[in-house]
Write a structure and sequence with these properties.
The strands form six sheets. Strands 12-13-14-11-10-16-17 form a seven-stranded mixed β-sheet, sandwiched between helices. The chain has 15 helices and 22 strands. The radius of gyration is 23 Å and the shape is globular. The chain folds into two domains: 249 residues, Aldehyde Dehydrogenase, Chain A, domain 1; 189 residues, 3-Layer(aba) Sandwich (Aldehyde Dehydrogenase, Chain A, domain 2), CATH 3.40.309. The relative contact order is 0.14. By secondary structure, the chain is α/β, with parallel strands linked by helices. The protein is 42% helix and 21% strand. It binds nicotinamide-adenine-dinucleotide (NAD). The site of nicotinamide-adenine-dinucleotide has 31 residues, from helix 7 and helix 8.
C-alpha cells in the first residue's frame, strides 16, 4: 500500500498489507498471549503503559513529523495531539487499579462479589484524524484491562500505527498481546469475519453502522465512536463578542475542521450577529494555509482528496440556495489536497452544509432571534456528539444544554475531550462510552460470585 503525503502528493512509503492468512495468524498468536497477559497483576500491565507514555513523549518530534507527513496535520497540532494524549496515561495511572479491582457487594453466610474479567482479544478499527487521542481511548484502556488488541489503524495513519506498535513492544507489552493489521477497508472487513471478543470502532457513521450490522450475530460487545454535526450557539450576552468569534473559529478550523467534535454549524443571536460575523471572518482570513511542516501553518492539507469534492459540493449547494460566501470557497491552485478555510453566512437547514458532516474547513453561520429557535435548530440533526453554548449566564446556557440530545455539552468552550468524563455519541454519533471509569469498564465483563461458607 502506497502512503501518500497529502501536502505534496508524493509517495513516502510502501507498506505490506495484511491478508486473510496473516490476520488469522496474528489472531492465533494474540489468543495465546492474552491469557498470560490477563494473569499479570494490573500494576504490571499498567507499568508497561506508563513506560509507553514516556517513550512516546521522548520521541514526540519524530512521531509528530511522521503523523504530519501522512495526514497533512500542521506539525504544531501533531505535537499538541501527542502531548495532550498523555492525559489518558495519567488517567489510567490514577484510576485503573481502582476500577478494575474486585468488589465485595455483600458479606454474610453467602457473600457476593464482582470480579472484572477482560473481554479477550478485541478488534480496534480506527480513524486517521487523531490517531493518538482516539487510539489511546481504546487500546491503552483495553490493554490495562487484560485484553489483547488487534489494531487496525486507518490506511491514512498506518505509519503512525506501526510506530505505536513498536513503542508498545519496547515498553514491555508482549508481541503476542498487541499487533497491527495494515490495509484499507477490505482488511478491516477481515477483522469482522474473524473470531474476536469485541469490536471497538472509530470512524464514519456509514462504516460504523455496517460494522454493527455485520458482527451483530456474534453477540459480542460493539462500541462505536462516529461522526457529528456539532452546533455552537452564541448568545447575545457573551462578555466579548470578538473573543467569542476567535474561539468559535478555532473550534471550527482546528485540524482543518477534521475533528469529530469540531464545530460544524454556528447559530448567533441577532443582536450580536453583525459584530460576530465581522470578527469571525477577519480571524479566518488571518489563518496561514501552507506547508504543514512549517511551524506557523494553521491550515494544512486535507488528509483525503475525495473530501475536497464533498466540501466544494456543499459550498455550491449553499450559494445556489442563497448563502453568502464571506471567505474562501475554493481549492487553491497548488500541489496537495488543500482547501481554503470557508465561511458561509445567510445559511439555513435546506442546505447540506448545515445538515451533513463537512469534516473540513467549511462553516455555516445562521442568525437566530431567541434561545428557543436556537435550541430547535441545534436539535435538528441525525447526530448527537457534542453541542456548545457561549454565554455569560451559566443558568441560561445550561437550560439549553440540558435539552440537547448529545453525549457531551460545553459552556464557553468546545472541541474538547477529557479522560475524566465519558466520551460518547448518541443517535448516529455512536454507541457506548470510552474514557472515565466507564471507559475502563468498557473493556471488562463482570463475573458475579455467590460464595456460601
Ligand atoms: P471511515 O469510516 O472511512 O474509516 C474508519 C476505519 O474503518 C478505517 O480504518 C477504515 O479502513 C475502516 N473501514 C472502512 N470500511 C470498512 C469496512 N467495510 N469494514 C471494516 N473496516 C472498514 O472513517 P475515517 O474517514 O477514518 O474517519 C472519519 C470519521 O470518523 C468522521 O466521521 C469523524 O467524525 C469520525 N470520528 C469520530 C470520533 C469520535 O470519537 N466520535 C473520533 C474520530 C473520528
Amino acid at each position: 500500500m502506497n502512503i501518500i503525503n497529502p501536502a505534496t502528493e508524493e509517495v513516502i512509503a510502501t507498506l505490506e498489507i495484511d491478508n486473510q492468512e496473516s490476520v488469522s495468524d496474528k489472531l492465533n498468536l494474540l489468543r495465546a498471549g492474552q491469557k498470560k497477559w490477563a494473569a499479570l497483576p494490573v500494576e504490571d500491565r499498567l507499568s508497561c503503559i506508563v513506560r509507553f507514555g514516556d517513550l512516546v513523549q521522548e520521541n514526540i518530534k519524530r512521531l509528530a513529523e511522521i503523523m504530519t507527513a501522512e495526514t497533512g496535520k500542521p506539525l504544531q497540532q501533531s505535537i499538541n495531539e501527542i502531548r495532550g494524549a498523555q492525559n489518558r496515561v495519567e488517567h489510567l495511572k490514577l484510576n485503573a487499579e481502582k476500577w478494575l479491582a474486585s468488589e465485595i457487594m455483600h458479606e454474610g453466610d453467602t457473600s457476593e462479589k464482582i470480579v472484572y474479567e477482560p473481554l479477550g482479544v478485541i478488534g480496534n478499527i480506527s480513524a486517521w484524524n487523531f490517531p493518538y487521542n482516539v487510539g489511546y481511548n481504546v487500546f491503552l484502556y483495553a490493554l490495562v484491562s487484560g485484553n489483547a488488541v488487534l489494531y487496525k489503524p486507518s490506511e491514512f495513519a498506518s505509519m503512525t500505527g506501526l510506530e505505536i506498535r513498536d513503542l508498545l513492544w519496547k515498553s514491555g507489552v508482549p508481541q503476542d498481546v498487541f499487533e497491527c493489521v495494515i490495509g484499507e477497508g477490505n482488511v478491516g472487513g477481515m477483522l469482522l469475519e474473524a473470531d474476536l471478543d469485541g469490536y471497538f470502532f472509530t470512524g464514519s457513521y456509514k462504516t460504523g453502522k455496517y460494522i454493527a450490522e455485520k458482527v451483530a450475530s456474534k453477540l459480542v460487545p460493539v462500541q462505536l465512536e462516529l461522526g457529528g454535526k456539532d452546533p455552537l450557539y452564541v448568545m447575545d450576552d457573551v462578555a466579548d463578542v470578538e473573543q467569542a468569534a476567535i474561539n468559535a473559529a478555532e473550534g471550527a478550523f482546528y485540524n482543518n475542521g477534521q475533528s469529530c467534535c469540531a464545530i460544524e454549524r454556528i447559530y448567533v443571536h441577532e443582536d450580536i450577529y453583525d459584530g460576530f460575523l465581522k470578527a469571525f471572518v477577519q480571524e479566518v482570513k488571518g489563518y496561514k494555509l501552507g506547508d504543514p511542516m512549517l511551524e506557523d501553518t494553521f491550515i494544512g492539507s486535507l488528509t483525503r482528496l475525495p473530501q475536497r469534492d464533498i466540501l466544494l459540493d456543499q459550498i455550491k449547494d449553499a450559494t445556489s440556495k442563497g448563502a453568502e460566501l464571506l471567505a474562501g470557497g475554493n481549492a487553491p491552485e497548488r500541489k496537495g489536497y488543500f482547501m481554503e478555510p470557508t465561511v458561509l453566512a445567510n445559511v439555513n437547514h435546506n442546505m447540506k452544509v448545515m445538515m451533513e458532516e463537512s469534516f473540513g474547513p467549511v462553516i455555516g453561520i445562521q442568525k437566530v432571534s431567541n434561545d428557543e429557535e436556537a435550541l430547535e435548530l441545534m436539535q435538528d440533526t441525525e447526530y448527537g456528539l457534542t453541542a456548545a453554548v457561549f454565554s455569560s449566564d451559566q443558568q441560561r446556557a445550561e437550560k439549553v444544554l440540558s435539552n440537547l440530545n448529545t453525549g457531551t455539552v460545553y459552556w464557553n468552550c468546545c472541541d474538547r475531550v477529557s479522560p475524566n468524563v465519558p466520551w460518547s455519541g448518541r443517535k448516529n454519533s455512536g454507541l457506548g462510552s470510552t474514557l472515565s471509569f466507564m471507559g475502563i469498564r468498557a473493556f471488562v465483563q463482570p463475573k458475579a460470585y455467590h460464595l456460601r461458607k
